[in-house]
Amino acid sequence: TATSTTTGFDLQVITSNPLVAGTIYFEVTAVRNGCTGNTLQSGVVTVNANPGLPIPSPVKTICSED
After folding, report:
1. Residues 6+ away with beta carbon under 8 Å from 42
2. SS3 of 19, please?
3. How far apart, in whole angstroms, are the C-alpha atoms of residue 59 and residue 66?
4. Is 22 exposed, middle or buried (0-12, 13-18, 19+ CB in 10 A)?
5. Tens digit of pLDDT for each residue in 10-26?
């Protein structure tokens, strides 16, 4: 009897320039009862950034004395 499990995972692309696309390389490998199988799937995902508006800094500096 075969069973399957789906697991989600978070991806994070960090780039210093939001106008440059990021690339994620991934591999999917089965593991069961401590045994690791062959890589079942691999691929590349290209993430094209969608730059938003910058968050402005606060107008007033807040100090602990205020």
Report:
1. 25, 26, 27, 28
2. coil
3. 15
4. middle
5. 656 565 676 777 787 87
pTM (2 d.p.): 0.42
Question: Among all chains, which residue has been given the structure tokens 């004395």?
Answer: 65
Backbone dihedral region of 65: left (phi > 0), alpha (psi from -120 to 50 degrees) or beta? alpha
The domain limits of the chain are 22-49
pLDDT score recorded for residue 60: 64
Q: How far apart are CA 29 and CA 7, in angstroms?
A: 12
Reduced to 3 states (helix: H, G, I; strand: E, B; else coil), residue 58 is coil
